[in-house]
Amino acid sequence: MPETQAAAAISYRRAGLAYGPVTVFADLELDLAAGRVTVFCGPNGCGKSTALKALRRLVRTRTGDIFLNGSSVSVQGNKALARQMAMLTQSPSAPEDLLVEQLVVLGRYAHRSRFGGLSPADRQAVDAAIDACELRDLLDRRLGALSGGQMQRAWLATVLAQDAPILLLDEPTNHLDIRHQIETLELVRRLNRDKGRTVVLVLHDLNLASRYADEMVMFSGGRVHAKGPPSEVMTETNIGAVFGIGCKVLTDPELGRPFCIPYPKV
Amino acid sequence: MSAPTLPIASGIGLSRTPLRLPLVWIVALGLLATVLVLGVGLGSSGLTPDRALAVLLGGGERTEQIIVLKLRLPRVLLAMEAGAALALAGALLQTATRNPLASPSILGIVNGAALGVVAFLWIFSDEANALTVSIHWQPLAATLGALAFAGLVTLLAWRDGLGPTRMVVYGIALGALASALVTVLMIVGPIYRANQALTWLAGSVQAAHWNDVTIVGVLLAMLVPIIALMPRAMDQLVLDDQSAAASGLAVTPTFLALMGLSVLLTATAVSFVGGVAFVGLLAPHAARLIVGRRALPMLVLSAIIGAMIVAGADLFGRLAFSPLEVPSGAITAILGAPYFIWLLIARGRTHA
């Protein structure tokens, strides 16, 4: 979608974000394009997760604003916002005796009225999410009986059932083994490529970020340190400056993406 | 919460509607009707169930009518209303705090109401231990006490972002304060009043009038339609706050609405029948074991079970030590405390 790539779907305008007295961003300026996979990365405490939460309004902007397709996220209704943006939070939780299917249905909240059962559209979205995350065989399973990878898929399906054009994922590969990391991110990429969903995710692993990002945003000390395609952001200078380590950046022989090998600071 | 043994009905499932569900409602309503008929029949001048039923259906002799309609029916109905209100209060509270062990008494509401009543009896008694105002103001005193303490708990917890844990901690602390003040007032106050307060504190429907039944009924009729708006949001609260918010739930307003409703329901019940213990804890818990955690059936069944518990406890308290009457609150506490302890042990085991 070349023409939508230029349009900024999401704009942070002088956004001030803080937890109590601790300022994370004084005035964040950032534009994210529609229809792309954007990865937020940076060291612990750099604010990447805060920036994502603020977009989904789980953290309120103190000053400035964040705009979604031109309208401020701070004034929209809860359900209206949820229909535009779904988010997988960092450590979601639900009771152990909840069944997988029951969890996924909860993703439809923003589309349902106060009363009545699931509409055909609800069923369709739940079905699609269940298939996309390959949960068909686990529908009757209690959450307490799932493995880490299955659990993550169940949560991802819940978020997908919300059927929002924008997907926010806060460290979706946390606690997953290497195979499940790749599978999760392949799924995310398919959702982007096949359904045109805009995806913004926080990833700790720079090499995974480089591999799946159309665009990387590298945060450092409450500022955007670098932003652009992985080939521009994943440089030895950037990584050295932001993480305070030495490193070597090579090119993945299979995928042609940059990857980095970290070394202790010289 | 991990529930032991009993199967949990799958509530939100796409296609499965458990066949045994209609049976649950038939049994529940049947038991409730049985408690009603026995409750108006049995007592110091006993009526057989068929006589009691005949009077309820508009027949019966004059004396039977007086016993059933004037003396016992208001008592049974008030017990049922109060039980339903306390059970609903507990169900809303347990959902709001995501804590299956929460009950209205931990928010300081019940002790606040008790303080209101004892203060009322103390302030409005003259030298001869007679009340200087009508006893009908007592429910208002209880409600004011309940609202004052609920408000105080909310205000204190507000400063720290109104988390469930904070509310519970402040509730326990302020509840202890209220209970200490009650003790002080009972010691320094008139002895006759202390006795009266004691019966009320234990929770009793002994003195029920049709007036009380009507007022509580009207209050419930006002609260129930608001409660009926909550189940969808309550279902969403099985998620953690952030996930629930991300799915579109207005988390803080929902939390405040549930807490507010819980306070009003508790104040309504406690004002008229006193501190009937454990119903708000037991009824929702039992309901969840039977119909699962989905809010709508859980709320309805909680209310039915709560009504059954208090009316049943009143009946038992009337019969067991006849001609003495034991306050129903004492009975629910005697039955409730072991259940609560069993619950704690069972939870401890599943967590280990």
TrEMBL record, chain A:
It is a peripheral membrane protein. GO terms for molecular function: ATP binding; ATP hydrolysis activity. Its main location: membrane. Residues 10-246 form the ABC transporter domain. Keywords: ATP-binding, Cell membrane, Ion transport, Iron, Iron transport, Membrane, Nucleotide-binding, Transport. SUPFAM superfamilies: P-loop containing nucleoside triphosphate hydrolases. It is found in: Cell membrane. One of its GO terms (cellular component) is plasma membrane. Belongs to the ABC transporter superfamily. PANTHER family: IRON(3+)-HYDROXAMATE IMPORT ATP-BINDING PROTEIN FHUC (PTHR42771). This is Iron complex transport system ATP-binding protein. It comes from Devosia enhydra.
From TrEMBL, chain B:
The keyword Lyase does not apply. CDD domains: TM_ABC_iron-siderophores_like. Pfam families: FecCD. Gene3D superfamilies: ABC transporter involved in vitamin B12 uptake, BtuC. The keyword Nucleotide-binding does not apply. GO terms for biological process: siderophore-iron import into cell. One of its GO terms (cellular component) is plasma membrane. GO terms for molecular function: transmembrane transporter activity. Keywords: Cell membrane, Membrane, Transmembrane, Transmembrane helix, Transport. It is a multi-pass membrane protein. Belongs to the binding-protein-dependent transport system permease family. FecCD subfamily. This is Iron complex transport system permease protein. It comes from Devosia enhydra.
